[in-house]
What does this fold into?
Amino acid sequence: MCGIALIIHGVRFDLSSLLINSTFPVPKSEQLVFTIADLRAALRRRGPDSLGSWKLLLHSTVPSCLPEREIASSIEEVKEESCSEDERNCFSLANGQTESQFSTMPSSAAELHFFGASLQLRGISPIVQPLINSSQNILVYNDIGGEENDGEVLLQLLGECRSCSPYLHNTNNFDGMGEGSVPDILSRIKGPWAIIYWQESSKTLWFGRDAFGRRSLLVHWPTVADSRFLLSSVSPVSSDFEAENGTTKLSFWEELPCGIYSISIDAPKLDGLFLGEVKKHEWTNAILEELIKWERTSVEPKPEELHISSSKTLTRKHDSHSVNSDALPSKSGPMQASNSVLAQAVLMALKESVMRRSSLHTIFQAGRHDVENELVVENELVPVAVLFSGGLDSMIIAALLHECLDPSYDIDLLNVSFDGRSAPDRISAKAGLNELRRIAPTRKWKLVEIDADLPTLTFETKHVMSLINPANTYMDLNIGIALWLAAGGDGWVYEENSNYNDEDRQCIKYKSKARILLVGSGADEQCAGYGRHRTKYRNGSWLALHEEMKLDMQRIWKRNLGRDDRCIADNGKEARFPFLDEDVIKILLGIPLWEVTNLDQPSGVGDKKILREVAELLGLSEAAALPKRAIQFGSRIARESNRKNYGSNRAANQASAGSAVIHKQLDMA
It folds into this structure.
């Protein structure tokens, strides 16, 4: 996990190919004031292990033998302690301009300022961004995952992207790369990523994020009022980030739509400014394009197909057993055989997904010897935690993590509540812990109970407001606060053998040190877990349901993942999404819709049917029958927010508070 950013000044941008109006002046109320120090601080929270910064200066030259101007470049490292006072304050001007920083630059000059902060999770040696090779190509990246420091591999591949060397086809996560262009290489990366890359030979800046938006990347497009081009993993906390005149300043940033972009820099013309032409490129991986289109072959069942599917619905059993990865459906007993091979296929894909996201070969190993030298026994280390409500999705992830992770490691289950022991998610988490202990008694499970009181979280609320930016509804804020607190992992654990019904149980203050957090995002979108899916089905049957699920998957980057990534990463944790693995998405798309879900059946039975069958295969019979409950309701932050901002739940419901834009001044006292 990393925090990356870029600031460009001195370039006039042509955004016509993106259909963005680059000349429309931005109102003053939409200017967001922050300093370089603010930006560094925000990035360092995401990447606490290292922070690097380099400047690329472009200037024009006129060769004696040619009438056209050429572009020359130079680079220099920027040390944090050496930043000038002007640079520290360069974002503090009211109109968003940055004249103070660039007042000494030549009139025909442009500057690209790269930032990269790293949370070291992979490889055996530390790495500091930005990465720069001998050709002066510059790369800052977020989470190009693999067994080594794949950023270095990616930089090499991008530097050689015009060649067809056989070496380029045999690299970890870069399946089949080396096709001859930057889009070819980026299209073949599996897993979440966001990058900013300067290609020196062509004077082109490349940037983008993966096709599902699993890593955050925000953009500020240049305007007449603010000519900068900015990219950042996160919005810095601004000194003026407060509600003013009934609105909040949230429109400075946009979520960058998923895809691959380039800015080709041309030499200055008469106005002395470099010209940057912005383009969006098509994905070149046919398999990825199919996943993005999210088209399912079998959507509407014939009556006999629906009857057969319904007749195979499992009777919930409490004696179901976990299956091994090499077990065949025909050898799994009558329950598994009646379940069809479809649930088995989903189970195996999910297990591989969790394995990829929890393998110790992909977890940074430096410092382990130091820990051992301090006489900390290895089985007290917790490399991976689960965002845990005790619901269907998190129970499946926890059970699969147990099967994938070395048994000597503990597993932290992070649970947040705004109503103490009475919150639905706390109740289901305790029940889920008991079920996990039943199927995996040798594993040391730690349920980390994180309790919060919303009215007292004044500073935290302001901070999370900056993290969810550009999202701006009470629902986004409630989810963001819950995720941010859960990812922090600061709570209480109880003695392993204590009875949860015992008022005198022994509790211990505990803060999870796991840097990897497994999250269940994507399960509801792909398996019809939301209430609106049932509504669409009732009003328009299978086709309407499919279209609603497709819409959810194609907008998950904007509605969910960018926000969630920022709130979790702010704690120096990396969110990983097993349900959004490309292979899992492909498997689920290949299953007939009526085998994925059956909304003629009641909640807790037919919704997310395929995942309930997976839970049965894992021995999670109780979890398999649990209804869907969103984090804002299960933790009861939505109820507390409604009371705080509207006076009561009834008043909030009448005002549609969940989707309401935050409209009044937050209490920052």
The mean pLDDT is 82.
